[in-house]
Write a structure and sequence with these properties.
With 415 residues, the chain is an alpha/beta fold. It has helices at 12-21, 33-40, 51-60, 94-105, 123-136, 171-182, 194-225, 229-236, 260-272, 277-303, 331-341, 370-375, 390-396; strands spanning 2-6, 25-29, 63-66, 77-80, 86-87, 90-91, 112-115, 145-148, 164-168, 188-190, 312-316, 345-349, 378-381, 400-402, 412-414. It has two domains: 2-199, NAD(P)-binding Rossmann-like Domain (Rossmann fold); 233-415, Rossmann fold (3-Layer(aba) Sandwich). α7 (194-225) packs across α9. Bound molecules: nicotinamide-adenine-dinucleotide.
């Protein structure tokens, strides 16, 4: 089939390449011309897609990257994987809107449009569908098909093996969408409607966000009560049922977990006039975690008679999750900002982000060498990384605030 994947980012590119590999003709459409040029030159910026795989589908002609809307003509299936950010707590669906207009202008009878972007329940039928209908002059469910299928790929282990939820605005749409994804994912899981699929994604991410925030709050309480939260979590995790292990950290980052629950919160407030209290509370706890990390550091320096102002602090691990290359909403940036505001001399080590690709990093970059570790008045392990020499850090750091419970010693305090 002729497939368009609109949005060639972290979600769209892996899907487009995979669809090309299984035999479709795929147009990877993106409005970012720089991104398109990179992709057309065979350079992948997404870790899940090796440049060699990208080049193979480019060379075979199965995949092309373009910013030219003329290339969208005649598609059988278009998948929308554009951003859905929050702006001041309000979902910004303008990317979906403009993408829908563009696709609508190229929609022909019999074609299918699937939304994959994370959003609140109702988006597919209340927002996407009317725009497609208006732009195309066609009727959804009569002339063309549509549905929602959330992106859930998580990591190398759970890539296209992750069961794919699929939904449609009607039975024919569901059939078409399921058929397409059956050829790409190991398992597809049909649900009865688009709102169920939209909400399912929000349940998954809210579950993680609320639980991580809960354990973060417990970590702060446990530290004040003089109880080792990490040992308590290990103890609780020996229960073979009814418990899921979550561990504390300096805050939940990324552009999914802290963002997605707010979609439901916004929708509930708009439509029902009530807040989604769990999401709001979790967001509040999460927002304050970097302040807590900074406070712990100030207290630790204070115990040694040192002001934070003028102290040299080395932050280790700046991405928001283990071994990731993604700095979006990383709590590390906020920790750094708070310490810099207090007058500290802050440096940061992040082996995953190549030099020069650090526009979101607000601290000078260094490697986590013995010299850097030994010269710091305090080291903060914000996120661990396989390249950090933990034994060396334990041995040579004057003081470590370990937000990941990876180190031990008299000079180490766990979060
Ligand atoms: N990254 C993840 O791990 C992940 C996981 C699950 C769900 N999601 C969701 O998937 C969606 C996409 O996320 P992402 O991480 O791939 O974002 P991204 O920013 O990496 O990529 C989105 C791409 O869409 C392009 N774009 C914007 N407007 C466009 C338009 N009108 N037409 C065509 N292209 C357009 C952008 O230029 C960008 O390249 C979001 O809703 C996100 O919440 C992401």
């Amino acid at each position: 089939m002729q497939i368009v994947v609109a949005g060639q980012g972290y979600v769209g590119l892996p899907l487009a390449v995979r669809a090309a590999e299984v035999g479709h003709r795929v147009v990877g459409y993106d409005v970012d011309t720089h991104r398109v040029q990179q992709l057309a030159a065979g350079q992948s910026y997404v870790r899940d897609v090796d440049s060699s795989r990208l080049r193979a589908v480019l060379d075979s002609g199965a995949y092309s990257a373009t910013a030219d809307t003329a290339a969208l003509a005649g598609f059988d299936i278009a998948v929308i994987t554009v951003p859905t950010p929050l702006r001041d707590g309000v979902p910004d669906l303008t990317f979906i809107e403009s993408c829908a207009r563009t696709l609508g202008e190229h929609l022909r009878p019999g074609a299918t449009v699937v939304l994959e972007s994370t959003t609140y329940p109702g988006t597919t039928e209340e927002l996407l569908l009317p725009i497609l209908e208006e732009a195309s002059g066609l009727k959804g469910g009569v002339d063309f098909l549509a549905g929602f299928s959330p992106e859930r790929i998580g990591n190398k282990r759970w890539s296209f093996e992750t069961p794919k939820l699929v939904s449609g605005i009607d039975a024919k749409s569901l059939d078409a969408i399921k058929g397409f994804y059956d050829g790409i994912f190991q398992t597809t899981v049909p649900v009865s409607g688009t709102k169920v699929a939209e909400l399912a994604k929000l349940i998954e991410n809210t579950f993680r966000f609320v639980n991580i925030s809960m354990i973060n709050e417990m970590a702060m309480l446990a530290a004040s009560l003089g109880v080792n939260i990490w040992e308590a979590i290990d103890a609780a995790a020996t229960k073979p049922f009814g418990f899921t292990r979550f561990t504390p950290g300096p805050g939940v980052g990324g552009h999914c977990l802290p963002v997605d629950p707010m979609f439901l919160s916004w929708k509930a407030q708009q439509e029902l006039g009530v807040p989604f209290r769990f999401a709001e509370l979790a967001a509040d706890v999460n927002r304050h975690m970097p302040d807590y990390v900074a406070r712990r550091l100030v207290e630790a320096l204070n115990k040694r008679g040192m002001p934070v102002s003028g102290s040299r602090i080395l932050l280790l691990g700046l991405t928001y999750k283990y071994n990731a290359t993604d700095l979006r909403n990383s709590p590390s940036a906020r920790v750094a900002e708070l310490l810099i505001d207090l007058g500290a001399e802050v440096r940061g080590a992040e082996p995953n982000i190549p030099d020069g690709d650090d526009t979101k990093l607000n601290v000078p970059r260094v490697d986590a060498t013995l010299d850097e570790v030994a010269a710091a008045d305090a080291v903060v392990l914000l996120m661990d990384h396989p390249r950090f020499d933990l034994q060396m850090i334990e041995k040579y750091a004057t003081y470590v605030l370990d937000c990941r419970n990876r180190l031990s010693g008299v000079n180490v305090e766990a979060l």
